[in-house]
Amino acid sequence: MPDIINAAVTAGAHGACLSGGGSSLIALASSQFHDILRAMQNTARAAGVEGKGMILRADQNGARVISTPRSRIRKEVSARYGDQFYWSPARPGSGR
């Protein structure tokens, strides 16, 4: 893995690291995307590691709600299971 990360940086990435819980590597770059991907793939193959490489754009907008249904049922109403001992969790400011 360090060899693949070093190959990405040598090919022009700003940085590279293990991504998520493992088995994925990510390289951050603003140019030379194909060269960086090719360098990472070639280094991985030379080490006997097969995988899939992708060039992806970073989301510039962050988290957002795209749509929400109008007829949304409140959680407390839909979570009643007929169990007399079930109470929905108190919410901040709900007075419960």
What this model shows, in words?
This protein is an alpha+beta fold and 96 residues long. It has a domain of 45 residues. It is 28% helix and 10% strand. The protein has a two-stranded antiparallel sheet. The longest helix is centred in the middle third of the chain and has 14 residues. It is elongated. The mean pLDDT is 80.
Give a topology summary.
Layout: H1 2-10, E1 15-19, E2 24-28, H2 33-46, H3 75-78
Antiparallel strand pairs: 1-2
Shape: elongated
Overall pLDDT score: 80
Please indicate the percent range of residues in DSSP E strands (runs of 2 or more). Answer: 5-15%
User: In order across it, which strands form the biggest sheet?
Assistant: 1-2
In whole angstroms, the N-to-C terminal distance is: 52 Å
Overall structural class, as computed from helix and strand content, comes to alpha+beta
Biggest β-sheet description: 2 strands, antiparallel
- Radius of gyration (CA) equals 23 Å
Q: Report the helical percentage.
A: 25-40%
Total beta-strand segments: 2
How many helix segments?
Answer: 3
Low-confidence stretches: none
